[in-house]
């Protein structure tokens, strides 16, 4: 994502204004049907039901179908009243005659009874930078410290079409920008900007619910499109101007409409859906909008309250392959109804995680890690149907998972996101064997033979711990996510005699996850990836009496790890003794073999 151009105007001792970052707010499982058109894949019958969710701790899906309660007036906090009084003092002292209006999301959220720290103020007769300079003049007059002014230059790739000034007002960062109107060139989403009226500014915004103003001068809400408050009450996502023209001007607004519909669980207006499905609009979205901007919108959806609703809308509007563009040649090729399959999987994943509860992403007390686990769990689930699809990367000349291509190239997300999703898919397949092992009295001899070699013998009652520990050490903090994905794909439910409907299947998978997760924690393996090796490479070299490392030392490190997992209370001296005995035993076997010949 290209950086913003930032001009800093700092008085002596002034504070540096930070760039604003978009922070995310941070159906039963479906019966799988084998597909003849795509061997090895299953189709999930498409049903959409969404959970009111924020951090896996919200009400039931039924509670989400509610009327929208919209307040008649904006209730200001004490801090907001102080800020607005200070700004009005500046206007009056210098006789500026400026109408100060808070614009957009802050007004919407306040009317919905939500707190918001995102204060953007629109000015009718001067630029944001000029007004901020007047604020500093006033601060100097009353004997207060002047503040730094940050000027964010216009940057269309960041959806910044006009210069914005920022400064700290009573410890809150405020954005200032003048009212504007805009017109678009035929083949560009970069508008020509002009100073406009409040009504022109309201109509040039993406959605009616985002076009509301709060006039600070007269303490009133202004609905200059004539339908912003009505649409808010109805829970409707509508564009102020005709939807198709709005989307052709800036196709990114299609994804913003979907994102806000999902955030508030609102309904997309019929004319908006028709415009979003238009072939020309879809083509413009794919050609005029950078992949970084598309990926940013998708990531916000995934991190918000109703990601499944957003993905269903993307699919239903025919936007799936525009947003999640595939590489030219994949093996196997993209199969029929791939978009339905992907969205059905994320829906199933959502409901499975929701049924289990917030503990599914608990990892210590780090909320950022929990949010990251939740986000990448959803991406992993969305791309489950693609996990066995690959393409030939021309640069590296190797086969790369299609899911990695979509994350890195179609969405331009972090390379580490792609790597984690691929690792989750790989670990989930290993978990499938482990689930069977932990859930039954299956004969462990075959697995025991895989783990052992001529130097290492693992006690039969430790096989499960060693196997699980090795998997967890690979996937680390994301092991619960990988387990969830594995349970999501587990085929046994279709043959279980007590599965009569989708709700039974959801319960069956939930209980299976809980049992396996408990079995792993009972083995004291949560955090095993942090376990310090009982023998490091230097110690192993000492036992082996070699002066330099190499593949042989690495092999013994892996053996020592398995020994440690099998003997969690074993000491370094005991491990060294095991190594010596193993080597001595092996040497005797080799010696007797040579003697026999």
TrEMBL record:
Highest taxon of the lineage: Eukaryota
Lineage: Eukaryota, Viridiplantae, Streptophyta, Embryophyta, Tracheophyta
Keyword Nucleotide-binding: yes
Record field: transmembrane: none
GO cellular component, one term: mitochondrion
GO terms, biological process: tRNA 3'-terminal CCA addition
MF-aspect GO terms: ATP:3'-cytidine-cytidine-tRNA adenylyltransferase activity; CC tRNA cytidylyltransferase activity; nucleotide binding; RNA binding
Keyword Transferase listed: yes
Protein name in UniProt: Poly A polymerase head domain-containing protein
Organism: Panicum hallii var. hallii
Similarity comment: Belongs to the tRNA nucleotidyltransferase/poly(A) polymerase family.
Domain Poly A polymerase head: 100-237
Keywords: Nucleotide-binding, RNA-binding, Transferase
